[in-house]
Amino acid sequence: MKPIWIVDDDQSIRFVLEKALLREHLPTRSFSNSRDVLAALNSAADDEGPQILVSDIRMPGGSGLELLEKVKAKHPGLPVIIMTAFSDLDSAVSAFQGGAFEYLPKPFDLPKAVELIRRAVEESQREEVAEERMGDAPEMLGQAPAMQDVFRAIGRLSQSNVTVMITGESGSGKELVARALHKHSPRASGPFVAINTAAIPKDLLESELFGHERGAFTGAQTMRRGRFEQADGGTLFLDEIGDMPFELQTRLLRVLSDGHFYRVGGHSAVKTNVRVIAATHQDLEQRVKDGAFREDLFHRLNVIRLRLPALRERKEDISVLTRHFLQQSAQQLGVEPKRISDAALAWLEVFNFPGNVRQLENICHWLTVMAPAQMVEAKDLPPEVGVSLTEPVAQSPAAFVGGGLAPVATAPAPAASAAAMPATAPVVAVPSMGALAGWESGLEAEAIALLGAGSTNVWDALTHRFESRLILAALSNTKGRRIEAAQKLGIGRNTITRKIQELGLDD
């Protein structure tokens, strides 16, 4: 493995880091100033450079931020950790703007610094393999049966101009469905005009929908075409239709009936040819009963009802949606797309997403900006997911594979949101003696089978499987933190590092 380069004018800092990293079997190379680092980088071959670079900010012969800029220009994929005893906002912002992997204020906790460096090493090793790429995603993503029903409905409506009512919770993607209906309809060449009736003040909504004549009201200095005229020959999407003022509902009903309306302050009827797609997250039947929505308008809009499932009803889609949004966020920000670990995905898949797809998209934006490494781990997820409040709920690996041993018992799933979490984190269930007897019997049976088959390496084979599953369970419990996993297993840090390498668990 390539060495970790440490740059600091303080000899004691270099010494402490060197000794700590050598105990973790991580080779090092130290420098006292940035000039020597740049000279070494220029003369080093591609396979002789650093695995990662750890640099102080204030040094003679050039600052760490200047070094960061020059290193990133030549080696954009090299993780750089910036250290400083003069911690301030400007330094932190400059470090991250320059592409630093992490910002480490002095004095730092040595075990945490080593863990950070270890993580940067793992990240650099991941970058050396082929990156995960996604091709062009379709306009709508979904493999869940509920989404397949939506796709089939869109297909059946593709040659129709019928009015459609889309229902579903906020953030579930109703406008996206409306756009798909328009795109695959005979009106695809016409305009698609969307308006949120709840976002426009009551006094302006009429003018927004139907336009106005010059002088119709104070400030109406010119004639203005409304959304119905703008959407002529195409589709008008009326989002949150349940919030439309009652007096405007009558005007909307007239347009839906014969396609004619009057601009505000106008005396001549305007003819329009528009397909209307409405959407709401409310129970319109209940609003009709409450007298807040016209029953005749409801029946006029409710020709074809299309229910869009909430994200918690389509857990199968969370993985592909997450990767899509991470890719999308990276493109928008002009950065490399983040990858997400299986453990982090497991957390997302058990979260209930009260904000639905929009909330997942926001989380991916947050991760693109805030996650320190290219690989997003469970501990990098935002607080609302609740990772820090309980143990992971992903399925634990079986204690043995194909060996007759029972899976490790796991903690119960986290609640829908952090607010619903109990104050005390649940613990992993302790197996009963009966359960222990079961896996021990399974181990005995496997050994007997292997011995009976004439195997001569039974000890090594079963020990390899046992140790692998034990270490994987500990790493899962500590969210990948090796030092903590070693402590819980009662072994040394060097031991768990050596075992991981011997067992091939780094692959």
- Which topology of the largest domain does CATH recognise? Rossmann fold
* Gyration radius over CA: 31 Å
What about the largest sheet? 5 strands, parallel
Instruction: Estimate percent helicity.
Output: 40-55%
Mean pLDDT across every amino acid position: 79
CATH architectural type of the largest domain? 3-Layer(aba) Sandwich
Biggest sheet: strands side by side, in what order? 2-1-3-4-5
CATH homologous superfamily of the largest domain - what is it?
P-loop containing nucleotide triphosphate hydrolases
Spatial separation of the terminal alpha carbons: 15 Å
Number of strands: 14
Unreliable stretches: 128-137, 389-437
Outline: elongated
Supply the number of structural domains.
4
What would CATH call the class of the largest domain?
Answer: Alpha Beta
Structural class: alpha/beta
Number of helices: 19
**Beta-strand residue fraction:** 5-15%
